Amino acid sequence: MCWYTTICYFGTKIKNNDITSIVTNKEWKKFVKNNIATRFNSFSVSNKTGYWHGDKEKTHTLTLIHKADPKIMNNLINLAKEYSLIYKQDEIIINTTKSENFIEISKL
What we know:
The chain is α+β, with helices and mostly antiparallel strands. Helix content is 27%, strand content 42%. It contains two helices and six strands. The protein has helices at residues 25-36, 70-86, and strands at residues 3-11, 13-16, 19-22, 44-52, 55-66, 93-99. The protein has a four-stranded antiparallel sheet, with helices on one face. A two-stranded antiparallel ribbon has the order 2-3. The longest helix is centred in the C-terminal third of the chain and has 17 residues, at 70-86.
């Protein structure tokens, strides 16, 4: 059976005319609780440093390992749209790769 790894990149820099602000850790945690955890049972989130159009910014990543399911991708696209609207982001990147050799270790 094939598994997929999907990583979503959420930038935090908000530009509004000449004023720049960021999505705070508190706002990100609220988004995870209210928007991500309500859609997915198993996932990981982490903080990274990213660059968008040459500008350095704090970036949050969401990683899902899943089987093929159109509902998952639809949920991710809707999630990205929500984040983009709430935090005035230009773009959310969703990258999915197929894992041919996936090993799952379960408790015995």
